Amino acid sequence: MNWIKSLFLMLLVGNLTWGQTASKDYMIFLTPQWEGERFEDGRPKVPNSVLERMKSVTIEEAWGTLRNEGYHNQFEGGWEPLHDDVPVVGRALTVQYMPNRPDVSDQIKKKGKEEGQIGNTNSWPIDMLVEGDVYVADGFGKIVDGTLIGDNLGNSIYAKSKNGVVFNASSRDMEGLSEIEGFNAFVRGWHPSFLQEVMLESINSPIRIGAATVLPGDIVLAKKEGVVFIPAHLAEKIVVTSEVVRLRDLFGIGRLKEGKYTPGQIDSKWTDEIEKDFSQWLKSHMDELPVPKEQIQELLKKRTW
């Protein structure tokens, strides 16, 4: 049993390295299936090209692929977004807030000051953001006095990340935030109060957002229906799966309009004849389709018809 105790101590110490920020070793331990590039802090760095393609993925497509991979707890709904039509896609920088406890809060503030942190604790994660990040925070669902940001911090967030936020908490200054072009906030509610009786507990550790478990570096896909948190190692698979579905749908709808096939033929398992027709259609329409040409070429390489 000594190895279990050693592992526990290693994780505990690693998780608390640099005050309340998770260590690089701990981050790598949590995400062993990610084999790509990482940030200096250890978070998986899913390529920008994948993030850009992820914007076209629907919530249903991402959710379905995750379920097929055995990930059943990655979606959360019930948000009050700032905008219904501005998706948020990026790499999660996770933050845990808890109800204030003075003795713990004082220690956190003291440690942060020693490490050069400036301002209130809810601004500390903002200073760590880089372009492509999404500030994801569990504020234990607090609405009144649970407003993690207003328009000042919102402008700072967008300046650093060119992205939005997902808060299991509230925000203030809805009118001011709505003026930040490209910014969106998925929150539990809106309230004019200021943040009170809330303390920062950790940065870049696993957190719970409603029914979902979120790790640092997960890909956030937030749209009107809700938010999906995608493990980094599955991000590209979800994008490719979505693109294949999109292409097959375009082909099927087009052939139905032409009257070449019946609805029954398109809605059931395709015959070899239809699959061959689909491959030829991909080749002849490659430059017109809403999927990168390189991805279509890669798909064609794997087809045997």
A few lines on this structure:
Helix content is 40%, strand content 18%. The protein is an alpha/beta fold and 305 residues long.
Radius of gyration: 22 Å
- Count the domains: 2
CATH architecture title of the largest domain: 3-Layer(bba) Sandwich
Report the uncertain regions. 3-19
Classify the helix fraction into a percent range: 40-55%
Encode the helix/strand succession as letters.
HHHHEEEHHEHEEHEEEEEEEHHHH
Indicate the structural class: alpha/beta
Q: How far apart are the termini?
A: 56 Å
DSSP helical segment count = 12
What average pLDDT do the residues reach? 92
CATH topology name of the largest domain: Glucose Oxidase, domain 1
Task: Characterize the biggest β-sheet.
Answer: 9 strands, mixed
In total, the number of strands is: 13
Estimate the strand proportion.
15-25%
Shape: elongated
**Can you tell me the CATH class of the largest domain?**
Alpha Beta
CATH homologous superfamily identity of the largest domain: Ribonuclease E inhibitor RraA/RraA-like
What does this structure look like?
This protein is 40% helix and 18% strand. The strands form 3 sheets. Strands 1, 2, 3, 4, 5, 7, 9, 12 and 13 form a 9-stranded mixed sheet that branches. A two-stranded parallel sheet has the order 6-8. The chain starts with a helix and ends with a helix. Keywords: Magnesium, Metal-binding. It holds the Pfam family RraA-like.
What topology emerges from the helices and strands here?
Layout: H1 2-15, H2 24-30, H3 48-54, H4 59-68, E1 75-76, E2 80-81, E3 88-99, H5 102-114, H6 124-128, E4 133-138, H7 151-161, E5 165-168, E6 170-171, H8 174-177, E7 185-187, E8 189-190, E9 198-203, E10 207-209, E11 212-214, E12 219-223, E13 226-230, H9 235-258, H10 263-267, H11 272-284, H12 293-302
Parallel strand pairs: 3-4, 4-5, 5-7, 6-8
Antiparallel strand pairs: 1-13, 2-7, 3-9, 3-12, 10-11, 12-13
Helix pairs in contact: 3-9, 4-9
